[in-house]
Amino acid sequence: MSPPTSAMSDKLKITGLRKTYGAVTALDDVSLTMRQGEFLTLLGPSGSGKSTLLWAVAGLNAPDRGTIALDGVDVTNTPPHDRDLGMVFQNYALFPHMTVAENIAFPLRMRGVGSRQIDEAVAKVLDTVQLAHVGARPPSALSGGQQQRIALARAMVYQPSIILMDEPLGALDKKLRDRLQLEIKGLHERLGVTILYVTHDQEEAMVMSDRICLMNHAKIEQIGTPEELYRRPKSLFAAEFLGESVLLAGLYDAATSTVTLQDGAQDGAQNRASVSLGGHALDRPSGPVTLMTRPDAIAFVPPQEAPDTALRVTVTSVVLAGALTKLFAETASGLAVQSNCLTGSGAGVYEPGTELAVTFDPASCVLLEANHLASYGDG
After folding, report:
1. How many domains does the chain have?
2. 206, 236, 266 — which closes off a domain?
3. Nearest-angstrom CA–CA distance, 362 and 19
4. d(C-alpha 131, C-alpha 184), whole Å
5. pLDDT in tens, 20-36
6. Which helix H or strand E contains 91, and what residues bound it?
7. What pLDDT does residue 7 have?
8. Residue partners of 228: CB distance under 8 A and separation at least 6
9. Residue 100 φ then ψ, to 5°
10. Are 165 and 217 contained in the same domain?
């Protein structure tokens, strides 16, 4: 029986998935939907549940509860070899006694495909990954990056419904990893394949993904595009895990769309530093908050160039990090504030010890739940 039309629009649909190992909960009521041709990355720290989720989709561990559907068909209890999935591992998993071409051909031979069709498919996929000249070589004769491309070719050759990739670049050095990120992204864009990818590397997820599923403590913390997760995180965990962030405790006044910062007393006076969000204020009630912004959305300026209510800091260090120059500063009580600018852009780079004021881009500010950063006092 064909699946209903409404289900056909979803390539992968996971509903209420739960997985435990004794007293440890690895997945806790996880639900997500993946579209045809999408590159979706499961991102999170070790133990967050991302690999457990991928392996459940692959059929390599059985969930305690919930369902997994591919193209509208429930495959929760379907054996792995009947799920029409391709898998790429971190360690390549190539057969050392076979040539490269034989490795790629293996899943086709297991499916009873004819020799002529196999030869054509292998030649085509080797050309796709730009390794047409290595088919007769053993895997040991290839570099790590070439072996990973062959592993990807083997997963692609029989045109599976989804390709699953479990930290495939984790064993490579940074330069090669950066290059392969772009190669895999390019293959995805050219071929329109659906890829479910696991990594703990935030930069890798940002570069490659259409959407990111950020996981924490066996749950989904937030799902969205890289831009959405970076610019509009919905929790302190999301703000801190994905990219650099500046987090400041404060008190939000909904009537004036202003955040009065915890660490803002000026020269012993009772007035406090504040940030006006103007038209960018969020629809939330007054009360304690954490103001979050990114280091590229704030700037340090001489105090006379900023309003009296601007936050005051002292520069502690200046770090040249290639294309970016990072300025680190502290408030009077030691809270860290960071500003990033393009190296050589002409933006102000100040010596350690310089006293400055902080200017914020209201459009880049996000109000999150109050946390332990500081308690808001009465003064």
Report:
1. 2
2. 236
3. 42
4. 14
5. 999 999 999 999 999 99
6. none
7. 42
8. none
9. -60, -45
10. yes
